[in-house]
Structure formats: structure tokens, C-alpha cells
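Example (one chain per record):
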Amino acid sequence: MRKRLKSIKLVFRGIGLCFALITFAALSLPTTLGFAAEQDDPLPSYPSLMANVAFWKKVYAQYSTTQGIIHDARNLNIIYEVITLKDWFEPGAYSYNDAKESCAKGYYQNLLKRIVSADARPSLEQERVLGLFAAYNAKNLLKDAHLNVRMQLGQKDRFLAGLIRSGKYLDEIRRILRAYDLPEDLAYLPHVESSFNYQASSKCGAAGIWQFTNPTGRRFMTINHVIDERRDPIIATHAAARLLKENYRMLGEWPTALTAYNHGPGGMLRAQRIKGGYENIFKYYNGPSFGFASRNFYSEFLAAREIARNYQAYFGEIELDEPVYRDSITLPGHIAIKDLARHFCVDIDTLEELNPSLRSSVISGRQYVPKGYCLYLPSKMASDSTFTAENIPPELFKSIRKSSLYCRVRPGDTANKIAKRYGVQVRDLIHANGLNAHATIRLGQNLRIPTQKQDI
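Predicted structure:
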């Protein structure tokens, strides 16, 4: 190993000085662009975050979802290669892209192992990779670099789509954050969480633009078989504001509080007790669950904020979606959505768009819009005296909601089998019963079947 490291040092003598100067210039540039921490900015950057913020800016504004960035997971300056992937909507794209990612990562893992173990003079390809480490301590980084090869999918097209979508609610989100006395720039967090995709769902069961999981969402919102308020961007923003305010009160600084949105306040309290302020946590904390996503969460936010604030510099002139204006009425009873659409002369698609918290079981008519629901209507319609809840014909309201069919889980049952047995969608079964993203069920469990049948 000593002989090999000596060989590496000899290579660095030829390329190290040049590479170090280029790297120093590149990393010094953001400071002149306002990346240095500002005392009056509650969401500051730090010198130690510059490389990470620069990396995520490339992810969001340079590389698209048909490009994969092969990089070192600890030092985001080190990008080995950018590979080309198939469009994810093409047939067979997932298997093709997975294979290409595995091949690229395997190639660099093996190359890095050979660099560390070989005694001969490095090849041209090995010299190229060694040059990526020239500005760093080779002994510390190269030894286990093969364990830290990672691929990050580009997000440029998704980020641009999110920018356009954000026009619908961004002003209202800012107003809500001001009302909670929170930094308005927190309005850019959904770019990181969901690309402002109002229908976003994650594999761990998080939903909506703020990506609340079921357990956390239930602390602040209604989530049941007919309503999921996580999917309403305004209701969910109130919930996010309350959660973020809780985090800040507990942790005392916004970078740490914001990271707690991903890592959890308990985890960040432990990190804070061990390492102190956010920058020390970022640089030195190695908690068992404080992985790549948590360490980079705040850097991602800073990159997203910079791009969203100055999107013309990255994407040119684009037209954002028009703001959505809506008024509301409170329903005094259970009612079918088709009856509401007919009464207000509004199509069901419009009601669905204005009321994203209503589950598909309500939109399809399998369940009623529940009593007490705050129904959103096109702006100014609800303020018209002829378009009030009192003017809805009483006979349209139901005194009780539709009954549900239940099924007891038997040996050998899976969510897929039960959904097929009753002719319903698995996702509806998951929503109706608050199942996790893997649709885990247990023997003897009673499952609500989302169906039009009235009998139990």
C-alpha cells in the first residue's frame, strides 16, 4: 500500500497543482455570488456546503432524467462520469437503466480497487480518476472510495415542470408562511420534496407537495378512506408550517430544523448534542441513520432556492401556471359529488382539481363527500348568495354515509389478491385502510373494501 500511495503522489505531482488551482477557483466563485453565510439570512449557506450546493444545482438545472451522474457520495466535487439513460416512459426503460447504472458503478468500483492495490504505473483512465482526487488527501479518500460510488439521476426536466406548477399556489404558500412568522423562502422546499407535484406519492407512503407520511400527517390533518388532506397544497402548507415551527423551537436554528424535516427532530437533537451547530453536524456527524439524503437535504434546499429565485438565468423566460383562486362552503350533510357538480353547474373534473384532498372513492361516487367537508368552488362562486350550502336542495343530503364492505384477511391473502377478489384497485385498498406503501397486511385483520355496494 505504501508503495502504491507513493506512486499516486508521483502522479499528483504532474497533475495535482493544476487541478488544485482549477478546483480552488471553482469553489471560490460561489462566495462572490452570495453563497457565504449572511448574518441576516435565517437560511444561510456555509463554505463547507459550497461543493454540495454546486452539485445539486447541476442536478436541478443541468442534467435531465435521462442522465445519471456517477459520483463519490462523500465528495460531490468528484464526478466520474455522466451516463445516458433511456426515457423512463419507454418500454423496458426501468430494466435497461438499472442495468446501465449497475454497470457504470461496477466499473468505477473495480477501477478504484485496482488504483489502490496495483503496483504498476497507472493507466490513462486511472490517471484521469486519480486527477479527480488531486485536491484531496489521497490516502484517506482512495482507500475506501470504491464503497462510495453512487448514481444521482438528473432532475432538470422535473424541476422545470415543478417551477411551472408552482405558480398555482406559491404566492399563497408564502402568505401562509408569513402568517406563521416563518422564513418565506421555506416555500421553495416542495421543489426538493416533490417538484411541486400535487399528486406525488413516495414508495414509503408520503403524499402531496410537502410529502407527509401517514403518521406525521395524522398529527396535523385528516387522513381517512374519503379524505387525505396531505394532497391539498394549502391545507398541507398549514401543516408543514406548524411542523417546521415545532422543529425550530426544538432545535434553535433553521438549517438544523429544516434537516429535521427529513431526518426527524429526535435524530437532529442527538446530532446537535454530539456535534453542536449545523455546520459541524454536516461535516463531522456520522450517526447510523444520518445518511446521504439527510446530510444533503439542506444543500438541496439551498440549490433549489437559488434556482427558483433566479429561474430565468437557468431556464430562460418561462410562463408559470396561473394562480388558483377558490372559495369554500361547508357542507351540512353527506352528498354525492355528482349532485354537487349538477347543482353548481361545475364539472366533476373541476371539483376534483379544486378539492385534491377528496379520495378517488369520492370522485368515482363510491363514497359521499362527507358532512362538514369544506368544499372548494371556483373563486367568487361561493361568495354569490345563490351558491351557498343553504341553497343546496335538502333532499340531496344523506343523513348517513355509505356503508363499507369489510374483509377479514385469511391465510395466503395479499393486498393484490384481495383487491382482485373484490374488483378494486390496490391503491384504493391502501388508502381506505391506511396501509403502508408495501400494502402490508396481517392475518385476521379487517380491511375496508372501497366499493359501491351498500351492504356490509
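Caption: The chain is about 50% helix and 10% strand.
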